[in-house]
Amino acid sequence: MTDAYVYAAARTPFGRFNGALAGVRPDDLAATALSGVLAKTPDLDPASIGDVVWGNANGAGEDNRNVGRMAVLLAGLPTSVPATTVNRLCGSSLDAAMMASRTVESGDADVVIAGGVESMTRAPWVLPKPSRAFPAGNVEAVSTTLGWRLVNQQMPKEWTISLGECNEQLAEELSISRDRQDAFAARSHELSAAAWDAGFYDDLVVAVPGVELERDESIRVGTTAEKLAGLKPAFRPDGSITAGNASPLNDGASALVMGSEKAGVGVDPLARVAGRGATALDPQRFGFAPVEAANQAVARAGISWSDVGAVELNEAFAVQSLACVDAWKIDPEIVNAKGGAIAIGHPLGASGARVLGTLAHRLRESGDRWGVAAICIGVGQGLAVVLENSGATR
Known about the structure:
The protein has ten helices and twelve strands.
């Protein structure tokens, strides 16, 4: 077995629903991220790429028929480069990175590209196929943007409630207040804007051709907890979750170059993949699933939480993020220090690679040795990866 490393990370800016990236197909977004990350590894011969593993949560529209392979072709890579698309909903591209790291560790390839894409704007409506020809009644078109659709009636009702209601239940169970949620959300916007202003994302984000979008479109400069407190609950009349303390709908793509020590890509590795974790629990408690996934990854890396200097946790909802941080008993200040998905955005299939790439760059900036990337996943799953900073100074 050999070690697997993250050599480079790149992503597009994340666009708002029906925003600047609305006119860009998801396969083109994927190709942009793929080309962008390869530009960071100048000595890599594209023909030597052993595989491309790409995450996507929808697959119902222009991202159908293996969007990973479409990205390879649209990016102009040799047709000999293979690719697959994986779907673990919100965790798809972190799953892709985990698969890529295993491929490298096993020796099946020296270089694997991992990434993911989602255009929630362009997600189509779908019609169920009729069971017989020429039905007399109406047929309802179902949106594929987010959440359950065409639900199997054998599923227990408590499993198929809305994502928001799931997290209202979590807030109730763990007594996480609206005030804490709004404060967490405001922090996300504040830190995201500050990171952009400081130039942290300049080396991580690549422009989308033909689109005038330089920064993540959902960031709201000047957002405060007091302003967020004025928003109405979105899922319960007396609930605590609003459009302001949950992640928005977004479009975007992200990518990583992963490889062995002999990858020959022309740059030093950013970080080593040191541990991985995947867990599942009751579907309605999906927001809490990263807790055990990260605990697994930390244990498999042979470290403890006291060793961890940076955490990138995808902010699907403020309440589930707070629940995870509370359970880990870590310093909240090491979590999402460059902002999170409530501000940056959560294009489902792209978010896992975003948090992992951000983590690698955070570790390189801070000099901390160990970091954790984690994500919750609808229908009750969680994933996590531990990175070891290849250039750690502390």
